[in-house]
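[Automated response] Your request has been received and processed.

Submitted sequence:
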Amino acid sequence: VLEMNAKVRIETEALESQVKEVLDNAKAKLRELNGDIEQLNTENSELNQMIETAEQQKKDLKDKNKSLMDELRHVKTQNEHLAKKKLELLADIKSAKEELAGLIDRSEQEKLAICKEIKNLKEAEKQLNEAKAKEK
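Generated structure:
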């Protein structure tokens, strides 16, 4: 019986030693896993922060793009207005050129008529002077 008690005690001590070793290994593994979990949580937080930053940048870019598109539409509208105004002004210039050309033609004709009239008056004056000279 003593032998059996000693044998049971030795087996119990061996089992306790094995259980202690398994528990120590499990605790060490848990500490290691807790460290890994902490590291992963830190990385997750950093990634979440990066995602939030990227989403804010995306929103800012969308806002800026919308603003630029609004500005582009405004510039296009102004360009269309200016193109219409340019066509109107070109038509006005063409009309003014045509009118000016007409005025130049008429003034040239009037100038020729006046020169002819002056020539005729000078001729008439000459004839009149000759007639006066003959009368004397």
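Summary generated for your ticket: The chain is about 100% helix and 0% strand. The first helix runs from residue 2 to 135.
If you did not submit this request, please reply to this message.
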